[in-house]
Amino acid sequence: ENLPRAQFELFCRTREQLGMRIRGHERHGLVNLLRDDIAEGRTVCLVADRDLTGRGVPIVWQTPDGPVPATMPAGPALLAATTGAALVGVCCHYDSTTTMHIDLSDPLDLGPRPLRDQVRRTTQQLADWFAPHIRRHVVDWHMMQPQWIADGRDGLPGNNNYKVFEAGAKAIGYKDVSTGHMAINSAAPMNNFLPGKFKRATA
Length: 203
Prior knowledge:
- A hairpin with a 5-residue loop joins β3 and β4.
- With about 200 residues, the chain is of the alpha+beta class.
- α3 packs across α4.
- The strands form 3 sheets. A two-stranded antiparallel sheet has the order 1-2. Strands 3-4 form a two-stranded antiparallel ribbon. Strands 5-6 form a two-stranded antiparallel sheet.
- The protein has 5 helices and 6 strands.
- The longest helix is centred in the middle third of the chain and has 22 residues, at about 115-135.
- The relative contact order is 0.13.
- Helices cover about 30% and strands about 15% of the residues.
C-alpha cells in the first residue's frame, strides 16, 4: 500500500529505531537490494498475502465455503528460489491490546525447477498456510483492498472487507467499530505501540 510521504517517513523512522531496514516497494533496484540483504545474513520480510500490482501468481484460497481464486505476489518465492534463502510464512495476531503472537510455518519446499513451477507451487503453499491462520484471527487481517478474483458470487469477503471486519470485531467484544474507512478502533492508545513500549512477542 502507498502511504503519504510524511507518513511513510514516520513509518521508516519508527522501525529503524528497532533495527529494521525499510525498503519501499517502488524503490529502484529493489530486488538487488533485497538479494544484498540476504547475502548479509539479514532476515527479509515481504508482504506475501496480497497482490499490490494485480499481476501476481494465480492461487486458490481455501475458505469454509470452498476454494476462491485470487492472486498473490511472486516475490517471496522468486527471491527464495534465486538466492537459496529459506522461505517461511509468518502470521501475527493479538490476544489483548498488549500481546502479539507470531506464528511461523516450517520452511516451505520449493520443489524441483523450472523456476516458474517453483514460484507457482510455493506461492500456493503460502496461501494454504495463510488461509486457516487468517480465518482464526480475521479481525487482525488488515486487508484494505479487494482480494478475490470476481467469479459471480455475491458477498465475497475482501471485496467487502468492512463486513468481515465489523462482524469479527463485534464477535470479540469491540464496541466502537468504524467501517467507513475499514478501520477498527479499540480503546488502546496508539502510543502503546511506539518504540520503548513494546512487550516481548510470544511465538
